[in-house]
Amino acid sequence: MTMETALRIRQLDKHFANGRHALRNIDLDVAKGEMVALIGASGSGKSTLLRHVAGLVAADGGSESLIEIDGRRVQQRGRIDRDIRRVRAQVGFVFQQFNLVARLPVLVNVMVGALHRMPWWRSWSRSFTRDERARALDALTRVGIAECQAQRASTLSGGQQQRAAIARTLVQGAKVVLADEPIASLDPESSRNVMEILARINREDRCTVIVSLHQVEIAMKYCPRVIALKQGAIVYDGPSSALNAGLLRELYGVQADELLAPSSAGGQVHVLPQPTLVPLAA
């Protein structure tokens, strides 16, 4: 059976103004309904790649450079598509620092996910219908913090704020969820909760989830597929079950120690039998 493609990237390169080559000839396909981990040491290009996928950053202007989500163009040849707002409506972005409005109630922060479906005058005045409020409350119930709906976002713990950010993507109805280091600043219990919620919405809603992580054992536990980046290039794309300490050291050298460190979600890396390195297609 042919799998439908949620994300298609071709010949993506990015140089920053300081000359750093941040992304190197990225070719990538992610099928609808996949849960994929992006791993790599700091500076490997994980966040930069996700920001390109969301259309927040334009790539270099290569003649074949292309990013599509669900068959709709995000950017091509270094230009963000003119219809990017409509494409972004299908893409939920979960940031490391939550991106909530601290002074607003949690329920209002979550309802912001519905703004793309509203006429401008209602979005400007934050005038929400009863159905929109009910949808937001349902999303908060799904992530386990419905009791916090009336609190200011600033009063929540880090883990609760991240759950609220995920609830916002549920209200948005995102078909693709991009999570950029969503557990980097969380305690072990909150980290487990956030990863389990992402896995559950992937399973129950059949949305595509791409999550960047430092912690290899967390990637192995929750994501059947892993894409490893090093210095802006994809150096491994395959099953998470094929990852172990030997393979990671082959890919990353001394940087493997950063990836193999115990994660914020607790536990040690589960070392599997040594696999044969699967090379990327030329």
Question: What keywords describe this structure?
Answer:
6-stranded mixed β-sheet, 5-stranded antiparallel β-sheet, single chain, 282 residues, globular, 10 helices, Rossmann fold, alpha/beta
In terms of structural class, how would the helical and strand content be classed? alpha/beta
Number of helices: 10
Largest β sheet strand count, sense and barrel closure: 6 strands, mixed
Uncertain runs with pLDDT below 50, 5 residues or more? Answer: 119-124, 264-282
Give the DSSP E fraction (strand runs of 2 or more residues).
15-25%
CATH topology annotation of the largest domain: Rossmann fold
What is the CATH top level name of the largest domain?
Answer: Alpha Beta
Overall geometry comes to globular
Estimate the mean pLDDT confidence: 86
| CATH architecture annotation of the largest domain | 3-Layer(aba) Sandwich
The H-and-E topology, N to C, reads as EEEHEEEHEHHHHEHEHEEHH
What is the helix fraction of residues, given as a range?
A: 25-40%
CATH superfamily name of the largest domain? Answer: P-loop containing nucleotide triphosphate hydrolases
Task: Kindly report how far apart the N and C termini lie.
Answer: 25 Å
Total domain units: 2
Strand order of the largest sheet: 7-8-9-3-10-11
User: Strand tally, please?
Assistant: 11
Radius of gyration: 19 Å
